[in-house]
Write a structure and sequence with these properties.
The complex is a heterotrimer. Chain A is an all-alpha fold. In chain A, 74% of the residues lie in helices and 0% in strands. Chain A folds into two domains: 127 residues, Four Helix Bundle (Hemerythrin (Met), subunit A); 38 residues. The N and C termini of chain A lie far apart (60 Å). Among the domains of chain B are: 130 residues, Four Helix Bundle (Hemerythrin (Met), subunit A), CATH 1.20.120; 196 residues, no CATH class; 46 residues; 34 residues. Classes of the chains: A mainly alpha, B mainly alpha, C mainly alpha.
Chain lengths: 167, 636, 111
């Protein structure tokens, strides 16, 4: 087992652990912190896949901006384990059962699928994820969606301000 | 010229629409005028058609109006046919019908305006349907008319719909007719399935293609229809009850025209009947049995219209006897003469009832001779005619039937003569009790006795003249005549049985029947003119007066069990079965809705749960698509 | 790495997100679980992108196969950021109105 494999399994385990901890944490602040762990693990996966641009963007946008925003809101509302509302045990049971059912389906698809046999994702090499290559395509073929995305941001910003201001 | 044919039913239809739709705005006089004028116009056109047919000796070719039913294997046109038989019936219907319309205008004068409009609308609709019946070129059009006259009969019997007994009588007539109609309908279906056509012109040349079983089945079923419409055993009990309608209606529908529809239909289908021994025997036996049974009942009836009603049933029985023994011309001849004298008798009775202020019991009459001279004389002539005294019309037609019956089997003849004697007896019993002797009603009634207006007496006189001379068209050869009606109808009634009996025998037959009738008349007049029996009949007489208890029998063996069955269906099957099922469905939906409503909790989490579950199910479906398709294919 | 591993990982993350949405009542946690699901998809897209690139590169020649997948991830991040800003604004407003972030309070759909 090479370093790559070790890294892969480590990051996978970290991501899953973080995700589960997001779920089970009573305190919302802890959930946020665990989610940041998950995002870091996923960014690690991106780096492993040599998708450097996305790894950085993921860290900046998600782990940086978005999660800080979450944290701000939670702290603003002074939410903590005591005020955390709990769903009924039945709802929890059904939720877990349904999710588990879905997962078991996914897994069984993956195991039984013939199409996926002998397909591998390239690790460590391949320059498709480099900023240079992505930027070329983004600013040529995808320039219009890119601009539209900026308008989307603008409108989201306006929307957030409108919704959030005191009536 | 065949466009004229359409005019015949068109006038009564127009009259029906005008009178029916404008009955609230037209005055009584105008309504009566429109109603009568429509029939008169039809009569004139019918006369033209009749002479056309008589002149050419062939049926008038008529283009089909339109295609009525166009199915895969058969096509039924809405077509008319005017040949010798139907043109003769056209004359009878429109001629007698016109006279009765005129009479009605005077008779119904006391009724409120809108009801008069309704009355004339029904009457015109009746004439229209009757014309459709006789003019139809196939059994389906005939059936439309057949149903139409049944409907009008129902409507007119129940004309005074506020009286529940009358409504009951109307329903009885309609239901009994329906039983017969079912037979007719089945016969038409049978014909259609075997030959693929119901048109007279196509059916009769093809009868050889039918097996004997088919022919017997079809003719017997058709005769069931005729039994209902023409009031034969066992479906005759509606006709006496049908007297609940206004008297002119009884004259037109229940004596002169509608009830002869069965005769017309059998005569029209003579090509079929002559091929089936069974059916012919059945027709003859039912006919003579009806004739005798109703004649016995008529002897003991005290309601002036009931006597005439049973007399009608009896005479119809004679006509069927004639049909059964193959004397189709004789039957049609009797239809014609019967239309004259029976219409006259009913109108005369109407005149009496009118004068007596709706008194119908002959025990309260008597001595009306001097008060109602015109009615009296015309009534007397009609009684003589129906009794079969030469040279009145009834003699010739009845004699022709009896002669044919003798040729077929002397037993029929003997029974027929007995019936004729009873006919003469009860008619003159009626005549003597009503017009001779002393008046037995109240003083008030006597004070108000008056002859009917001209509009009523003139139709009586015209019909009286026809009753007297009407038989001249069919004077048999043995009396030195030339049977014109026979020659005229020969092209249509092709399968008429030509009976060969010697002239001496025929003289003897005539002599016996006339003598018997004369004796019966003598007994009746001498017995009832001075001191008619007024008490309640006893013994056998009571059985006759109570109509052999046939109505009670029917009531007990058919009506009551059906009523009980209906009660069971209503109270058990409907209440707990059908209502239960319907309410159960409602309750189930309501219950399940109440339970399902809980799913709509408003909790987003719940909705998402269902969404995810649905996704799982969808995955399952897609994954196992082939398996599921196979499974579904196996099920459906 | 076999692609199945990545798919399994992404599926697991996704399902955890689903379970989170189903079982938690705190609107913010629910929102975070949605982000988790988005990230699972992102990871899958990148993995597939690299799978396709590897296949195209193995066939020789310079290729841009797989760029689209990564650009999609980029756009998803953009949309997610916009969504988070609006969503958090809504949650803040809700908190201001009902003094709770419990999604069970949001049962106005019932009526």
């Amino acid at each position: 087992m090479g370093t790559t494999q070790i890294l892969f399994w480590f990051l996978t385990a970290l991501a899953l652990l973080g995700a589960i901890m997001v779920l089970v944490s009573k305190n919302p602040v802890h959930s946020v912190l665990w989610l940041i762990v998950v995002f870091f693990a996923i960014s690690g996966h991106y780096i492993l896949l040599n998708a450097q641009f996305l790894a950085i963007v993921n860290l900046i946008v998600y782990a940086g901006a978005i999660m800080v925003l979450f944290l701000f809101v939670i702290m603003l509302m002074n939410l903590n384990a005591e005020t955390e509302p709990q769903k009924s045990i039945w709802m929890k049971f059904f939720g877990v059962a349904t999710g588990g059912l879905l997962l078991s389906f996914f897994i069984s698809f993956i195991v039984s699928s013939i199409d996926l046999k002998n397909k591998t994702a390239q690790l460590k090499e391949g320059d498709v994820g480099l900023i240079k290559n992505l930027g070329k395509v983004l600013f040529s073929d995808y320039v219009i969606p890119f601009e539209i995305a900026s308008i989307l941001f603008l409108s989201a910003m306006v929307g957030a301000v409108v919704i959030g201001k005191k009536d | 010229m065949n466009k004229l044919v359409y005019l015949v039913p068109l006038f009564p239809l127009a009259g029906f629409l005008i009178n029916g739709l404008l009955r609230k705005s037209l005055s009584k006089g105008i309504i009566g005028f429109i109603g009568s004028a429509a029939i008169l116009a039809s009569f004139v056109v019918s006369l033209v058609l009749f002479f056309q047919v008589k002149g050419s000796g062939a049926a008038i070719p008529v283009e089909p109006l339109f295609t009525f039913i166009n199915a895969d294997t058969f096509k039924i046109d809405f077509a008319f046919q005017v040949d010798q038989l139907s043109s003769l019936f056209l004359l009878i219907i429109t001629g007698v019908g016109f006279l009765i319309h005129v009479y009605s205008a005077a008779y119904m004068h006391e009724e409120p305006e809108q009801h008069v409009g309704r009355y004339f609308a029904y009457l015109n609709l009746f004439v229209f349907s009757m014309l459709l019946l006789v003019m139809g070129a196939n059994y389906v059009i005939m059936f439309i008319g057949w149903e139409g006259v049944g409907l009008c009969s129902y409507l007119l019997i129940g004309y005074w719909f506020k009286n529940n007994d009358y409504n009951y009588a109307a329903k009885k007539a309609f239901i009994m007719n329906r039983i017969g109609d079912l037979g007719f309908l089945l016969a038409v279906f049978w014909l259609l399935s075997k030959l693929g056509t119901v048109s007279f012109n196509e059916v009769f040349p093809q009868v050889s293609r039918l097996t004997p079983t088919d022919i017997t089945g079809i003719t017997v079923l058709l005769f069931v229809g005729a039994m209902g419409k023409s009031a034969q055993i066992p479906l005759y009990t509606w006709l006496p009850d049908a007297m609940a309608g206004p008297t002119p209606v009884s004259a037109l529908i229940h004596a002169a025209t509608m009830v002869t529809a069965g005769i017309y239909m059998v005569a029209r289908s003579n090509a079929l009947y002559s091929l089936s021994e069974v059916a012919q025997h059945l027709v003859a036996i039912v006919g003579i049995a009806t004739a005798l049974l109703s004649a016995t009942i008529a002897i003991k009836q005290n309601d002036i219209k009931k006597v005439l009603a049973y007399s009608t049933v009896s005479q119809l029985g004679y006509m069927f006897l004639g049909l059964g023994v193959g004397a189709y011309t004789g039957a049609v001849f009797h239809v014609m003469t019967h239309a004259f004298f029976k219409a006259l008798l009913f109108l005369g009775a109407g005149s009496v009832i009118h004068a007596m202020h709706h008194e119908q019991d002959i025990r309260n009459m008597g001595g009306l001779k001097k008060h109602l001279p015109a009615t009296h004389w015309t009534f007397l002539l009609a009684c003589i005619a129906i009794s079969g005294i030469p040279p009145f019309s009834g003699f010739f037609s009845k004699d022709e039937i009896l002669a044919a019956a003798y040729a077929h089997s002397p037993v029929y003849w003997v029974l027929g003569v007995i019936g004729a004697a009873m006919t003469a007896f009860y008619m003159f019993r009626l005549y003597a009790t009503t017009f001779l002797g002393q008046f037995r009603g109240t003083h008030e009634q006597e004070h108000h006795l008056h002859e009917s207006p001209k509009a009523m007496t003139i139709p009586l006189i015209i019909l009286a003249v026809l009753s007297v001379i009407g038989g001249m068209v069919g004077v048999p050869e043995v009396l030195g005549g030339h049977h014109e009606l026979h020659a005229f109808l020969a092209p249509v009634l092709t399968t008429e049985t030509h009976h060969e009996i010697s002239h001496s025998t025929e003289y003897a037959l005539m002599g016996i029947s006339v003598a018997v009738a004369a004796v019966a008349i003598f007994i009746a007049v001498s017995k009832y003119s001075k001191k008619p029996e007024l008490g309640e009949p006893a013994g056998f007489g009571k059985v006759l007066a109570d109509k052999w208890y046939i109505d009670e029998l029917y009531n007990n063996i058919i009506v009551k069990p059906l009523g009980a069955l209906a009660g069971v269906l209503k109270n058990v099957v409907e209440k707990s079965g059908i209502d239960g099922a319907v309410n159960g469905v409602g309750r189930f939906v309501k219950y399940s809705a109440r339970q399902l409503r809980l799913l709509q909790s408003g909790q987003v989490g719940g909705y998402i749960l269902f969404m995810v579950l649905s996704i799982v199910v969808l995955f399952l479906l897609f994954w196992n698509q082939a398996m599921i398709t196979q499974f579904l294919n196996k099920i459906f | 790495m076999p692609i199945q591993y990545y798919i399994a990982l992404a599926s697991a993350l996704f399902c955890i997100g689903v379970v989170g949405v189903l079982t938690r009542r705190n609107a913010i946690i629910v929102f975070m679980c949605i982000e988790l699901m988005l990230n699972a998809v992102n990871l899958l897209l990148v993995a597939f992108s690299k799978m396709h690139y590897a296949k195209a590169a193995a066939a020789g020649a310079v290729t841009t196969a797989g760029t689209e997948g990564q650009l999609f991830v980029f756009f998803i991040m953009v949309v997610a950021a916009a969504e988070v800003s609006v969503g958090l604004a809504i949650i803040v407003m809700m908190y201001r109105n009902v003094h709770s972030v419990d999604v069970n309070f949001l049962n106005r759909l019932k009526n």
